[in-house]
Specification:
This protein is of the alpha+beta class and 445 residues long. The chain has 9 helices and 26 strands. 22% of the residues are buried.
Length: 445
């Protein structure tokens, strides 16, 4: 299937849409609609292509006017709002870093602390660009009314000119870019994937009620005469709840089943979604217990293929490390799961393989590099070797909340290949878990 991208988004001249895949599918062509140009008020052409771009979701719309040559190549998202908000912090060190691909949703806030610069949410439409493109777009917006300011408010115009010079100097590097998106649909490219980029930090967090209201998400208001749900744990454990949702793959209406399950030392909630339209299935595990006083770090040395059958409970706050592959997976990337070690490795391989999916704009067409593609393929082959017991590695489960578990096949005796370490959480880990601002005493007052 062909994937169409907008050339003008990346500053390339020519037609509005460009084919970046090797295949030619005539059915997947943009829809052209004659519409009014808001610059010269004559008729122009709007091209709409319904497509799916990873991390940015579903629709690309572009307008061009043949009369005044005005064009609008802003990208509009029709995708679903993610379960958690996301924040990227990237330290730009060189000119080469300015070429990083950036997907900025219209709900995202962009900041550069070094020059006290901020682009508030909803002041720009969503865009697919580079870091340099974001700065150029900001400069163009500030320069737009400078001629009028020079005539009416010269002092303001001088200050804006000075600030524009500061922004232009940022192209040499040496600043920090922060993109905070409550919708979770923004993205900053990691060219070292699947390895961790030391200059790029990604954090997921729960939205505030104000952010939910800004995104148009409202909690269901309960009727005054509505019956209060029973708090009996036994009743909840024997009951399975079903609620309507949308499929995360095709966005079709689907149903999610939720059940409270009691596992020794754990209380978890299993949520399963089956889509009748595309056949997609998901099963997520949410922690239903309290946050432990100490974090837990479990390290397993894989010595035999039989280790793949070990039961594993990974909470949504647990990160995964494979030191021999220099691989680290953040806590929110896979989500909570109750599976086996082999199942977890398959999920990791599937997650990385999505970077090779033909519709990913960062690994195909003009954006693809043979080195990056080869690196991702090599990583998948190493995961296969680990699952076949042909590679000597360590699997590290680091859970600051202390709610993850890996089966000890030698129980009740100690496992010689597995170590479990309890540690005190850092301030940053408590902040990520929302514990620093939590009041457990006197909160009713």
């Amino acid at each position: 299937m062909s994937v169409i991208a907008e050339e003008n988004v990346r500053g390339i001249g020519g037609s509005v849409f460009k084919e970046i895949s090797a295949d030619n599918d005539e059915d997947n062509q943009p829809t052209e609609i004659e519409s009014l140009c808001m610059n010269c008020y004559q008729n122009g052409m709007t091209r709409i292509l319904l497509t799916k771009i990873p991390f940015f979701k579903e629709v690309i719309s572009s307008f061009t006017c043949p009369n005044c040559s005005w064009s609008n190549t802003e990208i509009q998202s029709a995708g679903r709002i993610q379960d958690q908000a996301i924040a990227y912090t990237f330290k730009v060190k060189s000119k080469q870093d300015m070429n990083r691909e950036v997907v900025k949703a219209d709900s995202a806030t962009t900041r550069i602390p070094e020059v006290d610069f901020e682009i508030p949410p909803y002041t720009q439409k969503g865009s697919l660009s580079t870091i340099e493109g974001l700065i150029d777009r900001a400069v163009a917006g500030l320069e737009q009314d400078q001629q009028l300011r020079n005539a009416t408010a010269p002092e303001v115009a001088v200050k804006i000119d000075e600030f524009i010079d500061k922004l232009k100097k940022l192209k040499e590097g040496g600043f920090t870019l922060v993109i905070d998106d409550p919708s979770g649909n923004s993205f900053v490219e990691n060219p070292f994937a699947p390895q961790k980029d030391e200059a790029l930090s990604v954090s997921h967090y729960k939205r505030t009620p104000q952010q939910d209201a800004q995104l148009g998400i409202k909690a269901r208001e309960k009727a005054e005469d509505e019956e209060k749900p029973s708090n009996d744990i036994d009743c909840m454990r024997n009951e399975m709840l079903t609620f309507n949702t949308n499929c995360p793959e095709c966005n079709a209406p689907a149903s999610t089943n939720m059940k409270l399950v009691q596992i020794p030392h754990f209380k978890i909630i299993i949520m399963a979604t089956n889509c009748d339209d595309c056949g997609h299935r998901t099963n997520k595990v949410k922690s239903g217990g309290a946050t432990e006083e100490l974090g837990t770090k479990i390290t397993l040395h894989l010595t035999d293929v039989s280790d793949m059958s070990r039961d594993l409970l990974k909470s949504e706050t647990c990160s995964i490390l494979i030191p021999e592959l220099e691989f680290e997976l953040g806590m929110a990337a896979v989500g909570g799961k109750f599976t086996t070690l082999e199942g977890l490795l398959k999920d990791i391989k599937d997650l990385v393989s999505r970077l090779l999916f033909p519709k990913n704009p960062f690994t195909c067409g003009d954006s693809s590099t043979s080195d990056r593609t080869e690196k991702l393929k090599l990583f998948g082959e190493k995961i296969d070797k680990i699952m076949a017991g042909e590679m000597d590695v360590h699997i590290v489960l680091d859970d600051p909340a202390g709610n993850s578990y890996l089966q000890n096949v030698y129980a009740p005796d100690p496992d010689p290949e597995m170590t479990t370490e309890k540690y005190t959480r850092t301030f940053v880990q408590n902040e990520d878990l929302g514990l620093n601002d939590m009041e457990t005493e006197g909160y009713q007052e």
